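worker-3 :: picked Myb/SANT-like DNA-binding domain-containing protein
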Amino acid sequence: MMKVGKFKRNFWLSSEIDCMLKIFKEIHSVQGSTTTTHYTFIQIANKMRKRGFVNKSPAQIRRKWFQMKSAYLCYKRGNVGRLLLIPERFRPIIATFIDNEYKNSLWLQQSESSENLDIEIEDEFDIGKSSLASVRNLQQQFLKDYEEMQKSLLQLQFKYQDIQDKNWIKYLSSIDLSTDTQCTG
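worker-3 :: tokens ->
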């Protein structure tokens, strides 16, 4: 016989992820830091319950957060396939959280190393200011093109996620959860 627990279901709907990320943003704006502790996930679970999402435990929220964070970091290192673990409409939000986390922790190192890098590039390669400016312009154009492609992919993923959520809701609505026939045997 299957034991029915309070947090039995562990797949995530877009509305649950959206609520979790909004609460994450609220907590981090109050804390002024993106550090996550066990207490952070307890706070998120409690606030999600108050907003009507009662099926998520702090452990499930923690697991989902680190799954999305890991997928984004792998994507940044070149593993594009892992990005599919994050629903497309939430990717910019995850990117903002994680990029801000690393900016804050590495701010001093980055500012010092970028100053040294600029000096080394100019000394070592002796490229003129105009060449450096053209490289920067090319980089900006590349980033602009990349962002446009990412937006179109996000729109496609958003449509797909909505269809997937509707199908999950339809499927779950059709299942009779009151009987315990699934685990006999």
